[in-house]
Amino acid sequence: MKTAQGWRLGIGDIQIMTGPRHRPQLKRPMWIIVLVSLVSFFLIGSYVYPRQSYAACYIFSSSGCKSISEWLPPTPSRVFTDEEIAARVVSRDLLKISIQSKNPKIAFMFLTPGSLPFEKLWDKFFHGHEDRFSIYIHASSEKPRHVSRYFVDRDIRSEKVVWGTISMVDAERRLLANALQDPDNQHFVLLSDSCVPLHNFDYVYNYLMDTNMSFVDSFEDPGPHGNARYSEHMLPEVEKKDFRKGAQWFSMKRQHALIVLADNLYYSIFKQYCKPGMEGRNCYADEHYLQTFFHMIDPIGIANWSVTHVDWSEGKWHPKSYRAQDVTYELLKNITSIDKTTHVTSGEKKETQIKQCLWNGMKRPCYLFARKFYPEALDNLMHLFSNYTTV
Ligand SMILES: *[C@@H]1O[C@H](CO)[C@@H](O)[C@H](O)[C@H]1NC(C)=O
Ligand SMILES: *[C@@H]1O[C@H](CO)[C@@H](O)[C@H](O)[C@H]1NC(C)=O
Ligand SMILES: *[C@@H]1O[C@H](CO)[C@@H](O)[C@H](O)[C@H]1NC(C)=O
Ligand SMILES: *[C@@H]1O[C@H](CO)[C@@H](O)[C@H](O)[C@H]1NC(C)=O
Questions:
Q1: 164 or 321: which carries more pLDDT confidence?
Q2: How far is the C-alpha of 43 from the C-alpha of 62, rounded, in Å?
Q3: Does the reported pTM lie above 0.70?
Q4: Does the residue 188 lie in any domain?
Q5: Which pLDDT tens digit goes with each residue over 76-107?
Q6: Does the keyword 4Fe-4S apply (predicted)?
Q7: Is the C-beta atom of 211 inside 6 A of ligand 1?
């Protein structure tokens, strides 16, 4: 709007210079003077305001300017529904609220079938940082036995989780809702029973707290395990061009956790139209809902990668799982030094998208946690922990 005003202001100036209508017949030299002043007016304008003066931009070059479309009013391809307008306005304002706490904590939310095999390792990780974290456990099939004092009495009411269905997303939302009850929780990390920490607590705390970014894995996969899972029933709210894929293991800021809980519109669409065996396709809500939702609602607020490392390089149905003998100092050093993310599209093409991990605009290693480790890896991890976690 600022720019459109500038343009109109310009016209006003010209009118003053060229004079009002009741003097139509200008003599030839007068014409030239007017023309010259007009041209110099724009030249000076584009010199003094090389970037901001979109009027000058528009007239003198269309490619040299940042974006002409920036000063045109947005042209929505369609009229939004009541629910979409509501969803967008609520998210926009929630994202603006600055939520502060005197004692900011990270909520570690464990999504697990039962007992956590690496509780002893996590105990070592948390020790000495008691006032800066809180733990929530959603055990979906059996009551866990806890060995660490930090995990005792931290189980939340849970429900059965069927892999690949919306019940997985429901469990994530249940964890978020429970963790949001504590106003000190500022960042929310979703972890599985096969996850382990890659750094010491201070490193993880600063990495997550000193940024406004949520780490939600999200990329476009045109292949059979990506866009082919999209259903046109999701229209008009979710278009195919916005459909995204990614690992479910997110970490997010409090504002983002709030908009996830506030969302009913997109959640309902994915609940209804993204499920296994839907019209002969398999769609898994935990791999698409939040990934697509954030891409649509706050694309620049997410990093597009997950801080939990997993190795898909073998190209199998399941990622590489580490056994006890695989867990060496070298392996852990390798994982902690990775500073680029790799996304491989599905299908024949197998296009590889490699991106530098940028943390507040700076190159940093990408990962804070890793999966998947067999329970038998515990002793090796305990033995190596103090060594590999030193920054
Ligand atoms: C996060 O955003 C707030 C509000 O916009 C700002 O004051 C703060 O400096 C930002 N923090 C970081 C680490 O960028
Ligand atoms: C994440 O991807 C979206 C496009 O999907 C992009 O607009 C956004 O800038 C990316 N985020 C970062 C931090 O690069
Ligand atoms: C660590 O990375 C190096 C270089 O990429 C590789 O040669 C080596 O096999 C890796 N070691 C382990 C244990 O993953
Ligand atoms: C840990 O590091 C120390 C000093 O670098 C080394 O002496 C020790 O052998 C390492 N421990 C393991 C288990 O690698």
A1: 321
A2: 15
A3: yes
A4: yes
A5: 578 899 899 999 999 999 988 877 899 999 99
A6: no
A7: yes
Judged by DSSP in three states, 218 sits in coil
Pocket of ligand 4 (CB under 6 A): 329, 383-384, 387
Ligand 4 atom closest to the Cα of residue 383 is 13
Measured in Å, residue 122 CA sits from the centre of ligand 2 at 32
How far is C-alpha 377 from the chain's CA centre? 31
- The span from the CA of 335 to the CA of 371, in Å, is 11
Residue 62 falls inside a structural domain: no
Q: Which residue owns the Cα nearest ligand 2 atom 9? A: 300
Tell whether ligand 1 has an atom less than 6 A from the beta carbon of residue 98. yes
Q: Residue 239 domain-assigned?
A: yes
Instruction: Give strand ranges (E) for the chain.
Output: 105-112, 133-139, 185-192, 196-197, 214-217, 251-253, 302-304, 308-309, 340-344, 352-356, 358-359, 362-363, 369-370
Is residue 274 within 8 Å of 231, Cβ to Cβ?
Answer: yes
Report the CATH number that the domain containing residue 113 is assigned in CATH.
Answer: 3.90.550
* 299 CA from centroid of ligand 2 (Å): 5
pLDDT digits (tens, 9 = 90+) for 41-69: 444 444 434 343 344 343 333 344 444 44
Structure token pair of residue 92: 């926009």
Please tell me the total count of domains within the chain: 1
DSSP element (H, E) containing 252: strand 251-253
Cα of 204 from ligand 3 centre, angstroms: 24
Give the range of the structural domain holding residue 279, as residue numbers without chain letter: 82-306
Q: At 360, list the tokens.
A: 């507040």
Residue whose token pair is 């939302």: 173
- Domain membership flag for residue 216: yes
Residue nearest (by alpha carbon) to ligand 1 atom 10: 212
pLDDT of the residue at 366: 97
For residue 219, which atom of ligand 2 is closest to its CA? Answer: 5
What is the Å distance from ligand 3's center to 333 Cα? 9
**CB-ligand 1 contact for 206 (6 Å cutoff):** no
CB–CB of 45/38 below 8 Å?
A: no
